[in-house]
Design brief:
Order of helices and strands: HHHH
Largest sheet: none
Strand content: under 5%
Distance between the termini: 31 Å
Number of strands: 0
Structural class: mainly alpha
Helix content: 40-55%
Radius of gyration: 22 Å
Length: 85
């Protein structure tokens, strides 16, 4: 187990928040890379009129550069981007 174990084995009262603090050494963080974001955008916008435009932008205009594609999508479709992320 990474982190600390609950420290309440020898206590009479075991419901204190301090006894269950397990993140002293590390935390779990979920992140998405720009490649993952680009793939999610392409998967979720898989209907007309977005499908052809997005695939063409990703493959031909940005030459599969995920970061540039995600930045472009965020600027052109800010409401859709906010719903996704």
């Amino acid at each position: 187990m990474f982190g600390k174990m609950p420290d309440n084995w020898h206590k009479k009262t075991i419901n204190r928040r301090d006894y269950y603090k397990l993140d002293k050494y590390r935390e779990i963080a979920y992140i998405q890379t720009s490649d993952q974001k680009a793939q999610l955008i392409l998967a979720l916008c898989n209907e007309e009129p977005y499908k052809n435009e997005l695939y063409n932008k990703f493959w031909f205009d940005f030459h599969k550069d995920s970061q540039q594609f995600v930045d472009w999508f965020k600027n052109v479709y800010p409401k859709i981007y906010m719903e996704m992320f």
